[in-house]
Amino acid sequence: MMKRLVSLFVVILLIAISVSQVSAEEDAIAQMIAYYQFYGSAAHTDIARLTEQLAETDAEKAQAWGDIMAYWEYVNDGMEICTDVLPDGLPDDDTLCITVLGYALNADGTMKEELIGRLQVAMDSAEKYPNAYVACTGGGTASGNPFATEADQMAAWLQEHGLDSDRIIVENQSKSTVQNAELTYKLLRKHYPQITSLAIITSDYHVPRGCLLYNAQLILSAYEAEDHPLNIVGNAGYRAGHNGYEAVSLQASGIAQIAGITLSRTKPVLSELTRITVQGKTEYVCGEAPNLQVTACYNNEYSRDVTNAAVISGYDPDQTGTQTLTAAYEENGKQCTAEITVTVSDNTLTWVIPLAVGIMVFIVAGVTVAVFLKRKTAKEQTDGPPVA
Q: Are 122 and 100 in contact (CB under 8 A)?
């Protein structure tokens, strides 16, 4: 009886620990999303802090979410949005899948002009990349025709306009961009394992959110399946002529839906930079670059390496003697500095001393051999010729 109670207690304890761990991970992810939603790229430090926190329990999940957050920033700040046709330089074989995102149908099940526009972009892109597959995504959205789906209508249009049916992949169950990505991943990994990259086609205003949600879902699907993710390598948008509604808050809602968590509506507080420290090598020879590490410290006891973002001044690699270097780092409008003293020596010593030592060794060895030979000759002369 006692053994059963102990076993039951252990099971309950393990379950409690597991639930607590999952709750902590979900909280960290929810905070990441909230930080970017409210602050964008200004939340770098807190996203890094939360990623490190997540890594303490699951390093692979932390890597996945680090990639998702980095891509989110790229989508809004650095990604080029192409129009009319996919860009040059994408894979020119069947490892590429041109993925066309659906759009709500008319009540009778026919396609709206915007969806046809996306299909024309897809058709032109399929002609540019003749070995690529074309995936049509989207389920039933026609209020008056329950049998019509976006993907089936799209596939029929592409075939009518000359695209080989063998190149067309149909995902006709999804009702949102998030489901598009989830079901497309499963379909491709199961039936088209040769596909390794996707090119997203949608309306121009929808490209950032479409790529963002697809990328996030592809990364997490791969994480859950312990498989490699499918990479988004390009995009092309139909010129819709309007901006739609694509706020960062809508992006955040989609990411939260993918993560399966409730989106926090509370604005978090940014970590505040309080000081920096600088340490590293303090003795150099002329011409040598400084080798230092700069660490930023914050008001919540968090610290991180900011060497690549810091500016080092006051160093002259050609000036011998003592020098005081200054490291400066700025974050969200606040700058901190720190100093370190280093010594620079004449680099001639780096080769003169070894050369001198080498010469001395050579001379000593030569003298030793000469003395040995001289003594050997003298001994032979003293002993005389050998007796027959």
A: yes
Cα separation, 179 vs 98, in Å, equals: 17
pTM recorded for the entire structure: 0.81
Q: Which CATH superfamily is domain 273-345 in?
A: Immunoglobulins (2.60.40.10)
Long-range contacts formed by 287-292: CB under 8 A, 24+ apart = 287/317, 287/318, 287/347, 288/317, 288/344, 288/347, 289/317, 290/315, 290/325, 290/342, 292/325, 292/327, 292/340
CA 111 to chain centre: 37
Domain residue spans of the chain: 79-239, 273-345, 352-376
- Kindly report, residue by residue over 274-319, the tens digit of the pLDDT: 999 999 999 999 999 999 999 999 999 999 999 999 999 999 999 9
Per residue in 237-269, pLDDT tens?
999 998 776 899 999 999 999 999 998 889 999
CATH number of this structure's domain 79-239: 3.40.50.620
Q: Please say whether the beta carbons of 142 and 109 come within 8 A.
A: yes
In this structure, what are the phi and psi dihedrals at residue 339, rounded to the nearest 5 degrees? -120, 155
